[in-house]
Amino acid sequence: MAFIGLGNMGGPMAINLQKAGHAVRAFDLSKEAVAKVVAEGATAAFSAQDAVQGAKVVVTMLPASQHVEALFLGKDGAPGLLASIAPGTLVIDSSTIAAATSQKVAKAADAAGIDFIDAPVSGGTGGAIAGTLTFMVGGTTAQLERAQPYLEKMGANIFHAGAVGAGQTAKICNNMLLGILMVGTSEAIALGVANGLDPKVLSEIMRRSSGGNWALEKYNPFPGVHENAPASKGYAGGFGTDLMLKDLGLAQDNAIATKASTPLGGMARAIYAAHSIAGHGGEDFSSVIKMLQKP
Ligand code: NAD
After folding, report:
1. Whose CA is nearest to atom 13 of ligand 1?
2. Closest Cα partner for 165 from 143, 149, 133, 132?
3. Mutate to test the pocket of ligand 1, among 3, 4, 8 (most ligand atoms within 8 A of CB)
4. Distance (Å) from CA 11 to ligand 1 centroid
5. Per the residue annotation, which of 19, 36, 107, 171 is the catalytic one?
6. Can you give the residue range of the structural domain that contains 271?
């Protein structure tokens, strides 16, 4: 099988497939990213075209819509990867992208006799490493059944959201909520700390009270509260502010198109945009607490 896009998420996902006994041919534009996966037994491919040769299943984990569209459909006259993938192949795209892009690529794939599903994930880099991701799948029941044995090696929860693109819609609803709750959690901790409270004690109080949420459980934005959270590692790795900004933008695009009211989602997008402009786009999104802390 082929795996393309070996970043913070794709790298550990590819390693889990390889460890489960699938012979993974791995490709990324970054040689370092490829080397990490090869060190765990995968084979390095020279290009995306090389990776998919002979593959019955292809998994992609790329940053955004434009990367997925350019890879599969081509760009500036260059042919897309669909031309190199054999009919009958299953393509699982786990990137978080616009539902419309998933549908566009799926339509072209279908015309070439290729099964394409969207299967974005939740669970962070910790979930990718542990193989406990949640998959939100858009596609037919038969396509999901084909994907199941592979998804099970990377995740613990697999949901069928609906037809192709529906996984992406579920994903942006979830990430809009996550973006909002990380800002809210950061605000509450910053207020407590400004009043002299110990961030660990305050976080534990809120975790066990009605404010309890995923950030307080696993991903505290204050350094030193959770040893393995990006906040305790200089906000390195994890889920980049610019990726969160992308997802909140996708949610707002959708809200505009459907005339939905998402005031907090819009405000959260503006906060992460300001945080990115201030130079924190490459840091984990929980660094948004820096916007809210007293100097
Ligand atoms: P990342 O930036 O760490 O990795 C993306 C990788 O894709 C990079 O290594 C890059 O070199 C590679 N790439 C880009 N274009 C390529 C191409 N044409 N061919 C081959 N490789 C290419 O990003 P990530 O954190 O792994 O996130 C990937 C996707 O997963 C995003 O859509 C993100 O929104 C989503 N996601 C991330 C997290 C998280 O916690 N990091 C959680 C859930 C979902």
Report:
1. 5
2. 143
3. 8
4. 9
5. 171
6. 169-292
Question: Could you confirm whether 171 is annotated as catalytic?
Answer: yes
CA distance 180 to 118: 24
Same domain, 246 and 152: no
Distance of CA 291 to the CA centre of its chain: 23
Percent of all residues in the chain with a pLDDT value above 70, rounded to a whole number = 100
pLDDT at position 176: 98
Closest C-alpha residue for ligand 1 atom 31: 63
Mean pLDDT over 94-115 rounds to 98
Confidence category of residue 295, pLDDT binned at 50, 70, 90: confident
What's the rounded Cα separation, in Å, for the pair 52 and 68? Answer: 15
Tokens (6 digits) for 69: 């569209």
CA of 27 to the centre of ligand 1 (A): 12
The mean per-residue pLDDT over the stretch 92-114 comes to: 98
What is the distance between the alpha carbons of residues 136 and 94, in angstroms, rounded to a whole number? 9
Identify whether residues 158 and 192 lie together within a single domain.
no
Q: Is the CB of residue 23 less than 8 Å from the CB of residue 1?
A: yes
196 and 245 part of one domain: yes
